TrEMBL record:
Name of this protein: Prepilin peptidase CpaA
Key words of the record: Membrane, Transmembrane, Transmembrane helix
GO cellular component: membrane
Stretches assigned to the Prepilin type IV endopeptidase peptidase domain: 16-115
Lineage: Bacteria, Pseudomonadati, Pseudomonadota, Alphaproteobacteria, Rhodobacterales
Transmembrane segments: 6-24, 36-54, 60-82, 102-121, 141-162
Length: 164
């Protein structure tokens, strides 16, 4: 992996709780809150100054802008929720560009696992553990935060263990 192991170790303890919160709020309310998105962006803005070489830190903001532009387009097309687009954009600076294929693979696995787990839970007695969660009755809509949050968390965890 191209991410610096030291950078991943710096980011992980701050990003992980936000990723877990995003899973929870998207499951319970079908919403990724602006507070979570801003908190993640703030983690990168502050911790990134310590964790990354300054030039790399500045370049990572192009990741945010690129993913935000793509997210806005996907949201306009109805393919993605606004919160999903904003969270993906806030998560993008954490990713080293050389690890893009790895992140996409992690995301694919997380999407499949999250979708299957959500649909199984929704169709079984597990649903009674949190009967008022909006995602249970959202029809064909899917709480993408259930895949987006773990994607960033797993990427940073793997980066901490196997990064450059």
């Amino acid at each position: 992996m191209d991410i610096l192991s030291s950078a991943a170790w710096w980011f992980l303890p701050f990003a992980l709780p936000i990723c877990l919160y995003v899973c929870y709020t998207d499951l319970s309310r079908m919403k990724i809150t602006n507070a979570a998105v801003l908190a993640l962006a703030l983690v990168f803005a502050l911790v990134g100054l310590i964790a990354l070489p300054f030039e790399s830190y500045l370049w990572r903001y192009t990741h945010l802008l690129s993913v935000l532009a793509a997210g806005i387009a996907l949201n306009a097309a109805g393919a993605l929720g606004a919160g999903d687009a904003k969270f993906a954009a806030a998560a993008a600076p954490f990713v080293h560009i050389g690890d893009l294929q790895i992140v996409l693979a992690i995301f694919a696995v997380m999407m499949l696992a999250a979708f299957v787990a959500h649909r199984i839970a929704r169709a079984t007695a597990l649903r009674r553990l949190a009967p008022h969660w909006e995602s249970w009755s959202s029809g064909s809509r899917f709480p993408m935060g259930l895949a987006l949050g773990p994607t960033l968390a797993v990427y940073l965890g793997l980066g901490a263990l196997y990064g450059a």
